[in-house]
Write a structure and sequence with these properties.
62 residues; 0% strand
Amino acid sequence: MKNPTFIAELHTKLGAPSSEAVESLRLLKAFLQLAPGQRIEVIEMVERLTSASHRETDRPLS
């Protein structure tokens, strides 16, 4: 994507991406560069963190 005309046309059509979108794309790019075994480890870690977070917030109100 080093063609400035193409980038300018995309910017005109789509607008500027949010910082969250840019960060998400950077994380996706890094994830895809991992070996398959490492990807599985990352997915399992995120699932553990997510389930632990849900357990903390799923308490009764009273």
